[in-house]
Amino acid sequence: MTLSESISQKVNKHGKTRDALMPILQDIVREKHYISDQDMVEVARQLDLSAADIFGTTTFYSFLDTKPRGKYVIRICKTISCSMKGKNSILSTMEEILKIKLGETTADKKFSLLETNCIGWCHKAPAILINDTPYTELTPEKVTEILREYIKQR
Amino acid sequence: MKNIPVKRVDLIFEKIVCKEIFKKIISMDPERIIQSVIDSGLKGRGGAGFPTGLKWQFAANEKGDEKYIVCNADEGEPGTFKDRQILDEVPEKVFCGMAIASKAIGAKYGFIYLRGEYYFLVSKLEKKMDEFHLLMKEMGHDFRILLRLGSGAYICGEESALFESIEGKRGEPRNKPPYPTASGLFNKPTCINNVETLVYTVMILKYGASHFMHLGTKDSRGSKVFSVSGDTPKAGIYELELGMSVDEFVEEFGDGDTKAVQVGGAAGFCVPRKRFADTVIGFEGVPTGGSMKLFNSSRSMYNVMHNYLDFFAEESCGQCTPCRVGCQQLLKGIEAVKKGERSSKYLDELVKLATTMKLASKCGLGQSVGNAFSSIVENFKEEIIY
Ligand SMILES: Cc1cc2nc3c(=O)[nH]c(=O)nc-3n(C[C@H](O)[C@H](O)[C@H](O)COP(=O)(O)O)c2cc1C
Ligand code: SF4
């Protein structure tokens, strides 16, 4: 499928009005883990909006990445409860296993490691999201095991 | 002042048959529905605490039949996680609350704005929404709910930013007035309520306004779902009667060494130990959207403050200068004091800045940064400096 076809599929599903924009952008991210410049230009063309407008909206939202990300985007919560309950040791464990630093993506494009603000699991801190799935009450051992499972998957 | 010891309540998570309640409500006049909610004394559970019945009345008084009900499920305030649990356990009660509101104000469409972090709830919610729509059809009530998702922006919990986001724009808060009840989503009269608020309206109509009104205090009627975290052996979600003091709360949830409680999240107030006894949790004292974070004496309040300011500096939408620049300067400021690059007197300047932000910022985000800042700096000055 060409980029234009892929986007028109989403436009058909959500509609051509401006309020369809967020669902369209969210679908793009879910599919390929980021929104490219070409995506933005094409969405603008199909919704009859300016590309600058689409760029403005996209870059406002931290989950609408405009940089290529891995197949699995890991977001570690850095807000106070998680930070009090050992977020740093979870982060360094993940950095060691994946051999990347915070903000980076593995060479095989499989994992990206990012920080995020409170994800609503403070009572089960520390917590991470891997794509849309939350993992909570983490320990270095537990997160190691979780990542090993993901590494096994293609 | 009447203080109420920690008392558990079971209204929000009580399993009920929504169909029965809705059957009763569908035949009621909108005025009577609204009056019950007014009589109950219910105030919004999303943080700002606006009287729910009044909000419904304002929206009902607006002309035209194009109006919207919006359920605010953005739940971004650090330390708040009760809406997630409500949507997970009793989604049908949330929908039912929206349907009641739609009957009260005369709306045909409702939106749920769910934070992107809770995407894992979507398939379940969609299934339950299908069942709900069948029920609406069966009852002959013309009302449909649509689900919209956030994408990781705390500011989109602010009502007008939330509308902008649903409309496909940057989540930048609008000027007020006009208020949402006059001009909200798609510039139509809109009634926006928190997830928990909507569920309470269901229970108020089920058990009667006086049942709810008799719980809590004059300024804080009823009960509330609290999200308890931090240094506590009992982290979790609890529905408690309003009106207890921080002291009583700490007695129940503390680890024996609590030195401060942050009530209301990063946007809320820090209550130090010496104030536990005379501070009521509620609209007459320290209000909260549910977030209760306990800190014991092993914690550095500098780190807490730094974490909050970092949060605000990132989440400020950047639209107005006092907030955009203020958040960054507060953060840089406490770092400079900590490093000794600035004298401790500089903290007074920073408190002044926080006060200016309260006065000059456009929305609740910039206006509330000073709450945590001033209450932590005033009570834990040494920890910020040394
Ligand atoms: C920065 C900011 C974030 C907010 N986040 C939320 C939120 O996540 N959930 C919520 O219900 N209200 C939030 N609010 C309050 C809403 O603007 C609004 O007052 C509320 O949804 C109204 O519902 P209620 O009257 O039932 O509380 C936020 C306000 C501000 C200023
Ligand atoms: S106060 Fe902050 S978040 Fe609110 S409009 Fe101004 S810059 Fe945006």
Question: Can you give keywords for this protein?
Answer:
heterodimer; A: 154 residues; alpha+beta; Arc Repressor Mutant, subunit A; Glutaredoxin; four-stranded mixed beta sheet; 7 helices; 12% strand; elongated; B: 386 residues; alpha/beta; Rossmann fold; Ubiquitin-like (UB roll); de novo design (two linked rop proteins); 3 domains; five-stranded mixed beta sheet; four-stranded parallel beta sheet; 15 helices; 45% helix; binds flavin mononucleotide; binds iron/sulfur cluster
Strand order of the largest sheet of chain A: 2-1-3-4
Question: Per CATH, what is the topology of the largest domain in chain A?
Answer: Glutaredoxin
Tell me which oligomeric state these chains represent. heterodimer
Instruction: Quickly count the helices of chain B.
Output: 15
Order of helices and strands of chain A: HHHHEHHEEEH
Q: State the CATH architecture of the largest domain in chain A.
A: 3-Layer(aba) Sandwich
CATH class bucket of the largest domain in chain B: Alpha Beta
> What do the pLDDT scores of chain A average to?
97
Shape of chain A: elongated
C-alpha end-to-end distance of chain A: 22 Å
CATH topology of the largest domain in chain B: Rossmann fold
Biggest interface: A-B, 37 and 50 residues
Report mean pLDDT of chain B, rounded to a whole number.
97
What do these coordinates show?
The complex is a heterodimer of chains A (154) and B (386). Chain A is of the alpha+beta class. Chain A has helices at residues 3-14, 21-32, 37-47, 51-60, 80-84, 87-98, 140-152, and strands spanning 72-77, 111-116, 128-130, 133-135. Chain A has a four-stranded mixed sheet with strand order 2-1-3-4, with helices on one face. Chain B has 386 residues and is an alpha/beta fold. Chain B folds into three domains: 18-213, Rossmann fold (3-Layer(aba) Sandwich), CATH 3.40.50.11540; 223-296, Ubiquitin-like (UB roll) (Roll); 301-380, NADH-ubiquinone oxidoreductase 51kDa subunit, iron-sulphur binding domain (de novo design (two linked rop proteins), Up-down Bundle). Chain B is globular. The model of chain B has no long low-confidence stretch (mean pLDDT 97). The site of flavin mononucleotide has 22 residues of chain B, from strand 4 and helix 14.
